[in-house]
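May I ask you to review the protein record following this short note?
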Amino acid sequence: MRRVALFFASAGYSGYIPVAPGTAGSVVGLCLLIGLRTFALPSIEILVLFLVIIGGVAVATVSERHYGEKDPSMVVIDEVAGMYVALCWLPVGFGGAALAFVAFRCFDIWKPFPIRMAERLPRGWGVMADDLIAGFYARVVLQLTALIFPTLVGP
């Protein structure tokens, strides 16, 4: 069971990439969302977001215990969830997806208030919460950009 949890926590082992594992996890999240939009009903996006968040908290908790450290770098399910928050149910084209990706990565690295504080939450909640907030910030940037430059963001 622990092996399955580590597989999901690392987003299919993408978190083990030696350079920029968080970026790799974000790419996995973006690809998963593109796949869902291509092959599933829109309502499935919300269900998958919920499952990624709840499941992410659980597998991040298992991973922290396994590795004996807070928010191990190979745990990137939080980046998958952050990308989902940034793009869930928003009609975007390539430009919008690229903007959301860059904005999310910037907020995840920069960690403006209250992202850094969210990391202090216990267990898997601390792993997930900071990226969920970063995803929300990226979503706000995306939606504000869409108001000003709709053709840049839209499909």
Q: What stands out?
A: The mean pLDDT is 95. The helical segments are 2-9, 21-39, 42-67, 77-87, 94-110, 115-118, 123-148, 150-153.
